[in-house]
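Morning, I've got a small favour to ask if you have a moment. It would help a lot if you went through both lines with me. Thanks so much in advance, here it is.

***
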Amino acid sequence: MKRRNLWLISLLLLIGMTVLASCSEDTGGSESSAEEGEADTVEDSGNAEGSGESRELAFSHLFPNNHVMETDVVQVFADEVQEATNGEVQVESYPGAQLAAPDGQYEAAATGVADMGFSVHSYNPGQFPLTSVMELPFMEETGTEGSQVLWDLYEEFPELQDEYSDVVPLWLSTSEAGQIFTVGEQVKSVEDLEGMRIRSPSPEVNAWLEEMGATPVSMSMNEVYEALERGVVDGTVGPIHTLLDYSLQEVIDYVTVGDFYMTTFFGVMNQESYDSLSEEQRQAVDEIRGEHMSQVAGEAIDARSEEAVQAAEEAGAEFYELSEEELQEWKEKMQPTIDAWIQDKEDSGLPGQDVYDKAVELSSK
């Protein structure tokens, strides 16, 4: 009997210990699951709150540190992007062609050498055939007006948009109208240009310089100061702001004002860099890029132009503004350039006539 009772007691103790062990394991498992669930919740919450990782984007361009395009355009863009993304997206500027040559800025952005690129269209002849309409003679007077016309053309013509199909345009803009700067000899008439070596920024300007008997010399604006100083060229065409941003007021003697052409600029972003941003970050950038930044660039150029006129006059440069009567002769000499531009685009299957007509229409407003 006693032996039986002992056996029952032992059995009950064994069952009790088994039950306790089982409860202990369940409790531990529940705590582990709770911890895992909590970790998952934190991770998901972090993804939701942090709309995207913080990014630093490299912005490459050719302009020097003191150039208005660095101080009043690139830095404005960088500041606005940083503010709009609550500091998540930082834009680091690399001025002075540190990452790519002046004519390699677009390719640098398109291929991912840099996240963004900014330069002059005409440094890549033939790559932007319809954009170059704004480089034709007498299109606009100010950068603000020219930039608005160019962006409106971009939005209206799919063929013009195709010129930027491998990037995300940040802005398209123009300078104020370009003038003629010379050393030693003043230009007042078409005949005065004959035989002069004039630095030219584009094929469109080359065409009308040749029409007037001048010899166009192609080079980037970074090379112009030395070329003028050493007599490699007799003069250059350029927007007024370049007198100050490239210190040309120190080496030129005369400025002939006729609003002969406009320089055009692009700011573009690598497509993969753009796509890698979070949706919220892309939306923030989209609010800034486009028409807004095109106007920022145009207005910055115009403000700098006013400063450059003053600096050039103080340095002793003599300004000569062509009268309406004098301009008629220049316009007649330049008309073949316009006709040839239109014909060339039409022969290439592009709407050259429509784009030119629309540009004139928008300019006349």
